[in-house]
Design brief:
Blueprint: E1 2-7, E2 12-18, E3 27-33, E4 36-44, E5 49-56, E6 61-67, E7 70-76, E8 101-104, E9 115-124, H1 125-136, E10 140-142, E11 149-158, H2 159-169, E12 173-177, E13 180-184, H3 186-205, E14 210-215, H4 221-228, E15 237-241, E16 246-251, H5 253-266, E17 272-283, H6 284-288, E18 293-294, E19 326-330, H7 336-345, E20 349-353, E21 356-360, E22 365-378, E23 384-401, E24 407-422, E25 425-439, E26 444-461, E27 476-496
Parallel strand pairs: 10-13
Antiparallel strand pairs: 1-2, 1-9, 2-5, 3-4, 4-5, 6-7, 6-8, 9-11, 12-13, 14-16, 15-16, 17-20, 17-21, 17-27, 18-19, 19-26, 22-23, 23-24, 24-25, 26-27
Helix pairs in contact: 1-2
Length: about 500
């Protein structure tokens, strides 16, 4: 078998042939034909191979092939008119010849700038690695257990890839330490790595313990402890001083460097977000005129924007809520108060609740507006018991301030109201929505879709005559007026600088 190494500066081909017998003595031979200037031959008794160094006038393409036990190299130059020159050496006859291929000398690569071609058949792995190491200039060490045969063919690849490929083929690996490649089985290298790391850890534990106090300005010490504790060694200790919001850490100096870097990254100012919420009962026509941009993308999932599951308990009465959870945005946040006040004067809007809260970034805020409804149940003995159930509107809002000062709101909404009195208690009609929406600072998110239909009866007629028994209906009657109202939730977040 043989291995071909190629080099562009100077233009050379190096061929290591294993198990070769040649009648040509070692030395440098002048050729100056077919693009070849000189050929040097050097036998290596320890590796049982001979190296041929072919110096070329310039970069050529070449083809190597095995013909009747000979290795034949043929050089080409596009458009050239020189006669091809062949170099052959007698190799063992029992080795089959691989199919011929055409190589192109490579451009200078990165790393050491060396690429090689390998054509190995049942070659000793130690011989192959030694040949690569000598050509590239590596320091290698082998153990007694290193053995195996390798058969592979690779063309024009970086020497590092060829080095690892040859080792992996026979199940070997290497460890690079202090400029030396030590060849060994992978399991042995892993064992030594474990021992080395264990020794390093044991050596660290012998270092002097240092106690330092880290006073946190923004982060909560008890919460930061969970993160910082992961950096400590087995002998390290950490305590929390709640009075000064500080961490007291005892460990080696290397750990303190890591702790200081971590605390610097997590102990930063936290945004505070003020959330102005309004829960309104509004006329559908008035809502359409408020400039709500519906069909905003619900970041929690795909499909129709704001589409969530809503419903009521079985046996819902007429007038129960419909599908709840449409999401919209109003960009003109500063004008909302004026618009709502105007509609309230026209009796088109009724404010159910207007809570305002402030919450830290990434923290959950809870809002509840409603009432407690009493209902009667009976204990096992049949005695009546009065119990209460909360109904109304529940909001859970979690703001996330993004780098560009946009705000992502995670909104969980539940609207409930009492239904029919049942033998086992009271029916509760519930609608809920889970939504995530992206807003600019000061924009308003609108959650709608909870529609109620109300019927209001009134009597009109001719005064006095419409109230006469029997004939009064001729002069007047009852008029039923249906109205469509919608429960809408407005959420306006503001970043507090």
């Amino acid at each position: 078998s043989y291995t071909i190494f190629s080099r562009e500066v100077p233009s050379q081909l190096l061929i290591d042939v294993q198990g070769v017998k040649t009648e040509i003595s070692s030395g440098i031979y002048t050729v100056y034909a077919g693009g070849i200037t000189t050929i040097s031959i050097e036998p290596f008794e320890t590796g049982n191979f001979i190296r041929f160094v072919i110096n070329l006038e310039k970069t050529f393409s070449y083809k190597d092939e095995r013909v009747n036990g000979n290795i034949v190299l043929t050089f080409y130059e596009t458009g050239g008119n020189f006669k091809a020159v062949s170099l052959s050496g007698r190799a063992p006859s029992e080795i089959e010849a691989p199919p011929p291929t055409v190589h192109a000398l490579p451009a200078p690569p990165p790393s050491r700038g060396i690429r090689i071609s390998l054509n190995l058949e049942n070659a000793d792995i130690v011989t192959v690695i030694k040949a690569i190491a000598e050509y590239v200039g590596l320091n290698v060490v082998f153990g007694e257990e290193i053995k195996g045969k390798v058969t592979l063919r690779a063309e024009n690849i970086p020497w590092e890839q060829a080095f690892e490929l040859a080792l992996r083929t026979v199940g070997l690996s290497y460890l690079y330490e202090n400029g030396v490649y030590r060849i060994a089985p992978p399991e042995k290298i892993r064992e030594e790595e474990i021992k080395r790391k264990r020794s390093e850890e044991e050596a660290k534990l012998l270092e002097p313990q240092i106690t330092r106090v880290y006073v946190l300005q923004y982060a909560v010490a008890d919460e930061a402890k969970k993160t910082v504790q992961k950096l400590l060694t087995s002998k390290g200790q950490i305590e929390v001083d709640e009075r000064t919001n500080a961490l007291i850490i005892t460990d080696i100096g290397e750990v303190h460097e890591k702790v200081a870097s971590l605390i610097k990254s997590i102990d930063t100012p936290v945004y505070q977000v003020a959330i102005d919420s309004r829960i309104l009962e509004i006329n559908r026509g008035a809502l359409d005129q408020m400039g709500v941009q519906w069909n905003v993308k619900n970041l929690r999932g795909t499909g129709v924007a704001g589409e969530v599951t809503g419903g009521a308990s079985p046996g819902a009465m007429p007038g129960a809520p419909t599908l709840f959870g449409q999401v919209g945005i109003i960009s003109r946040g500063a004008l909302i108060d004026n618009v709502i006040s105007m509609y309230e004067q026209r009796k088109l809007v009724k404010t159910i609740s207007n809570p305002k809260i402030s919450v830290l970034n990434n923290q959950k805020a809870r809002i509840h507006g409603g009432s407690r409804i009493p209902y009667i149940t009976r204990d096992p003995a049949g005695n009546p018991i009065v119990q209460f159930v909360d109904v109304g509107i529940r909001l859970e809002v979690t703001p996330h301030v993004n780098v560009n000062k946009q705000i992502t709101l995670d909104i969980n909404t539940e609207v409930s109201e009492p239904g029919a009195q049942l033998p086992g208690g009271i029916e509760i009609l519930t609608n809920y929505a889970n939504t995530r929406v992206l807003l600019n600072n000061g924009e308003t998110a609108v959650i709608g879709g909870l529609i109620k239909y109300k019927t209001q009866s009134s009597r009109e007629g001719v005064p006095f005559l419409s109230r006469i028994p029997l004939i009064g209906r001729l002069f007047g009657g009852n008029i039923a007026e249906e109205s469509e109202r919608e429960i809408v939730i407005f959420l306006t977040p503001h970043i507090i600088e």
